[in-house]
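[agent] plan:
  1. take the single chain provided in the ticket
  2. run structure prediction with default settings
  3. attach structure tokens to the ticket
  4. add a short note for the reviewer (M.T.)
[agent] executing step 1
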Amino acid sequence: MLKDQERSLKEIESQKERIQSVKDDDTKDDHDVRKQEEVLAEYVAGQEDENDRLLQFYEKLCETMDTAEEEETFAAEVEVTEEWTAAKKARGTAMAKLEALGKLSD
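[agent] step 2 finished; step 3 output follows
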């Protein structure tokens, strides 16, 4: 999910550059610019959807991790696994991203 978001940001930046290139090209008209701007709008709308899905995944991950921590066997069986370490890293990364987007309340 986070990789998708990074890719989307690159696509948006690339599309902005493409729009400027079309504007600078004397052989292109306003219709060409509008079409490229429509593509940019689709990328931006897709990014909003990705942000919303990231929030949903983050909330589910937090809920699952909290439940796991309550189990009696957590320390012995779960906390020491690579999956748990990866989950903690993903949770931290997602939290930072969501905070930067203003999607998490304090």
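[agent] step 4 note for reviewer: The CA atoms of residues 12 and 44 lie 7 Å apart.
[agent] ticket updated
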